[in-house]
Protein: Glycine N-methyltransferase
Organism: Dendroctonus ponderosae
Amino acid sequence: MAQNVINTRTQGAALEGMKDQYADGKAAKVWEAFIGDKNSRTQNYKNFLLGVLRRKGCKRILDVACGTGIDSIMLVEEGFEVVSVDASDKMLKYALKSRWARRRDSAFDKWTIEEANWVTLYDDIEDLVGDGFDAVICLGNSFAHLLDNFGDQREQKLALRNFEKCVKPGGFLLIDHRNYDNIIDSGETAAKSIYYNPTHTTDIKTSVLYVSGKPALVTLDYLIDLSSDKEDRWVEESQVSEFRLSYYPHRLKVFTHMLEQAFGENSTYQIFGDFRPLGDIETPNFYIHLVEKYSSFF
Ligand SMILES: C[S@@+](CC[C@H](N)C(=O)[O-])C[C@H]1O[C@@H](n2cnc3c(N)ncnc32)[C@H](O)[C@@H]1O
């Protein structure tokens, strides 16, 4: 049963130290079933991401929220040189397993996977950054996991500055978040969207916590019914999986401003709603920000 009290982590996760909401392994275990498996991310999503990376001539990509490796694997398969990091060893375990299984393919043998936290990212992977990556990606509503522990968004700002330091001049950052403006207004979260295309019955219960009259935390209780999985890939003891994840509800305007502060006024900024130019879709599920870091050479 879903918990009735707001805990920001699923029961069983460590309550001290780095707040790894995936530490109990519950979400990691069923993550790909929730997403709809590796090949099921919508074609629009793949077209958009590959389109941007190829249009900009990218070769080296840093995936700062690789999780189970879903996007990184697609990029390795498409011929990019990929460095993947994540703070959760429970999630990384699945990425590492995939790399091991495909290690005889030289593209996978070269795939670098490290544990790193956005708040200390540049120090964590300085030796891998070199002159900077052509692109840094932070997708799948990952950034919103970084909560506002001090009430002034300082860790989120620090993380964005770390992302900026990993991008080479002329390179870019692709970062997304759910449409929290709509989640706050409607109190609901869509289970199916540009990223998540589950074939299993999935329900998401949404709770919004207000602090001093301001939305400070969105908690999503996910319920995934795995009983229809014909191959029994995900099923062990229980047919129904429940897990809870909490997010900082980024308002579009405020988040855009934080990005501008991190990358400076000379960089260029574009926003997409569900991969369409902003405004094309009335209420998109996701916003994606494309920030091109200023280079004095252009
Ligand atoms: C929603 S999952 C998305 C993973 C993948 N991009 C996808 O779409 O399937 C979010 C990931 O962000 C990672 N994460 C959350 N906070 C982090 C932090 N402070 N530093 C590094 N990774 C973090 C989590 O461990 C998790 O694997």
Summary: The longest strand covers residues 167-178.
